[in-house]
Design goal:
The protein is an alpha/beta fold. Helices cover 48% and strands 19% of the residues. It folds into two domains: 159 residues, 3-Layer(aba) Sandwich (D-Maltodextrin-Binding Protein, domain 2); 99 residues, Periplasmic binding protein-like II (D-Maltodextrin-Binding Protein, domain 2), CATH 3.40.190.10.
Length: 331
């Protein structure tokens, strides 16, 4: 009888071990075969902005180097929250991803009253791509030659100076409000649906200033059409080392930058997340990719999925206080 019991237990152990081995083999096989069809990369902002530029750079390189088929698709609106919502609702198979950033992941949840997602719960951090300073720019034909000019004129003409941003509730919008508070000036915010529309109006002189990611403004700066006044990050931009920080110019409390990275719906197999993270990090390590990212005004910063997840959670809580202190809300 005792021998029979041990025999049954032994059978159970063997069966469990076999099932575990089969499961491990299946996961390994999935990682080896992924992807077997095209991957959709949601871009939650319009074409031409910093998010779109970096998303397409990554998608094109994955297609070119890895021979994956990655299709970038713009799903813009509501400060980037429409695209994130679509990604959250996608099937967690690895064939739907989104290029997210601070705007729609750690700022928007504290600004929008009825937002349906929690990024720390509903998304999986896959691969951090990089970060970029935010900057204050103006047309080369404007009366503002320096940031000091902005402050002086804004104090002399309260409410008359305007600045554009890619939209209400973006990190860029809040960077403008943080500077406005630090300088004790009254400048009027004009929200746009994406960076390109704001860029056209600042170039034509319809708005005085634009607060923008370096990535979005870089092409027009290089073309000699935009004058960079300052960056809002703690350090100067690698791609624009001659442009001072707002802190250097007398406002040390202003320190705002934004980051970009790939996310997938919660429940996506860990093997797929690991595969995509490894491949993206390998791309980011190449001199060609680093030069391409820096040329767009961003800085490469690769991370493991765990490190990226930790960054998301930390910034999510940090920006809750910043948004609440700003008093900003979006219906």
């Amino acid at each position: 009888m005792i021998r029979k019991v041990f025999s049954c237990l032994g059978l159970a152990v063997v069966t469990s071990a076999t099932l575990a081995a089969v499961g491990a083999t299946a996961v390994h096989a999935q990682a080896q075969t992924f992807p077997t069809k095209p991957i959709r990369m949601i871009v939650p902002f319009p074409p031409g902005g910093g998010t779109d530029i970096l998303a397409r750079l990554v998608a094109n390189k994955l297609t070119e180097v890895q021979k994956w088929t990655v299709v970038a698709e713009n799903r813009a609106g509501a400060g980037g929250t429409i695209g994130i919502t679509e990604a959250v609702r996608a099937a967690p198979t690895g064939y739907e991803m989104v290029m997210g950033q601070k705007d729609n992941l750690v700022v928007a949840p504290w600004l929008y009253k009825n937002l349906s997602y929690d990024p720390t719960r509903d998304l999986v951090a896959v691969a951090h791509v990089g970060f970029t300073p935010i900057m204050i720019v103006t047309s080369v034909n404007s009366r503002f030659k320096t940031l000091a000019d902005v402050v002086t004129i804004a104090k002399a003409e309260p409410g008359a100076v305007t600045y554009g941003s890619p939209g209400n509730g973006t990190t860029i919008h809040l960077a403008g409000e943080i500077f406005k508070g630090a300088a004790h000036i009254d400048i009027r915010h004009i929200p746009y649906k994406g960076s390109n529309a704001a860029m056209l109006d600042v170039l034509s002189g319809n708005v005085d200033l634009m607060v923008s990611s370096v990535a979005s403004a870089m092409a027009q700066i290089k073309a000699g059409k935009l004058r960079p006044l300052a960056v809002t990050s703690a350090k100067r931009s690698t791609s624009l080392p001659d442009v001072p920080t707002v802190a250097e110019l007398g406002y040390p409390s202003v320190d705002v930058s934004t980051w970009y990275g790939l996310f997938m719906p919660a429940g996506t197999p860990k093997s797929v997340v690991t595969t995509v993270n490894t491949v993206v990090n390998q791309l980011l390590a190449t001199p060609e990719m680093q030069a391409a990212v820096i040329a767009q005004g961003a800085e490469v910063q690769a991370m493991t999925p765990d490190a990226f997840s930790s960054l998301l959670k930390t910034d999510y809580q940090k920006w809750r206080g910043i948004v609440q202190a700003s008093g900003a809300t979006v219906e």
